[in-house]
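Before relying on records like the one below, remember that each one covers exactly one chain. Contacts with other chains, cofactors or solvent are not represented anywhere in the record.
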Amino acid sequence: MAFGKVLLKKNITAMWIVQECKKQWERMGFQYTYSQLADMAGKAEKFYAIVDTEFEGFYHPENMILMIQRYLRKTSQNIPDDKDVGQIVRIIYESIVLQSVRALQMLEDTTNQKVDVLYVVGGASRIEILNQFLSDAMQIPVLTGPAEASAVGNAMLQAYGTGQFSSEEEIRKNVRNSFPPEKYEPRSKEEWAIQYRKYKKLCAVC
């Protein structure tokens, strides 16, 4: 507990699914960087299919791509080929966004407060398409923070403990100056609202 505060959070399954697909493509002989995966996802068909990221089959499958295909078959959706990398990654990105909307609504209901800006830190902060999707779906601005957020946070708290910083605000200012945020503004809304209604029904079924 830092600065006498307790963090209220809602864990969701996110980039783990992409990581496991990437490992499977590597087993198949394909080497992709996360930047390349994001670029291919940007060129793929939007809303081709969606998955419930919290489906228990995605926790520790031997083959994540095969599990996604099985899930889509079970829910009578379009099924991409296992080599259709961009389409699979886009399905995952869009599903992460829809689950994030669901999690945000849960937090807002719990706190009885509206969130007016979303901060994205960690590895996902580097994925421009994902951050824009989040802003579009939530209809709020998205600001990115450090990609190595855990390491930066630990370093800042240790610096505070040794007297190098005097307050939480001073730490925040230092981080903002060291890692200038990127800002994403909301654009299209209706198409995401339609997909979210589909997602809620899907989560109720599976």
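Residues 85-111 form the longest helix (27 residues).
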